[in-house]
Amino acid sequence: AQKITQTQPGMFVQEKEAVTLDCTYDTSDPSYGLFWYKQPSSGEMIFLIYQGSYDQQNATEGRYSLNFQKARKSANLVISASQLGDSAMYFCAMREGLSNTGKLIFGQGTTLQVKP
Amino acid sequence: DTEVTQTPKHLVMGMTNKKSLKCEQHMGHRAMYWYKQKAKKPPELMFVYSYEKLSINESVPSRFSPECPNSSLLNLHLHALQPEDSALYLCASSQVVTYTDTQYFGPGTRLTVL
Q: Measuring CA to CA, which residue among B54, B102, B99, B44 is closest to residue B75?
């Protein structure tokens, strides 16, 4: 079974508009961390935002916010005021606490294209 | 500073060659990782080093040999690779291996095996 599911292989958004990238996860571990990374065509994985399973508030980092709905096991990334430089592949990932291996479990990714 | 550096950026090698990939971080992190990524796919974990000791080997073929000479350096030695090993190889580091720690990635090495 997929532990991280990203159901949108590709998305388009108009410049300056907001966009939501979906991510659902599956774990029975009460302790886990959720991460979003951006990967431009250059290849580097850029860390965007983190949400811990015990965090009461949704994480925010500049134009990025994470809509964390624990009961639904979803951790959607919201990008406000899209810019052309936001065009990239976006990965949702999870680390589980009990395994304590450091292993990041990735979703299949969503390719975002920002239109001028 | 959250910089992880990797050299070389690009590498082309024949199936009989021996080459090495290098990764360096100066953030004081004690966990380092190697990932392999094929085009349009998520990264796949290969190895994890924790406090300079190999803690995870994800059943990687022996033609890939990792080495962690010190807490800042991570190498990946390559020998007798196959064309299907062509991929982007990403190095990452984190403070330790707990689930709350962010992994920071380097820019990657694009490897082509002829």
A: B54
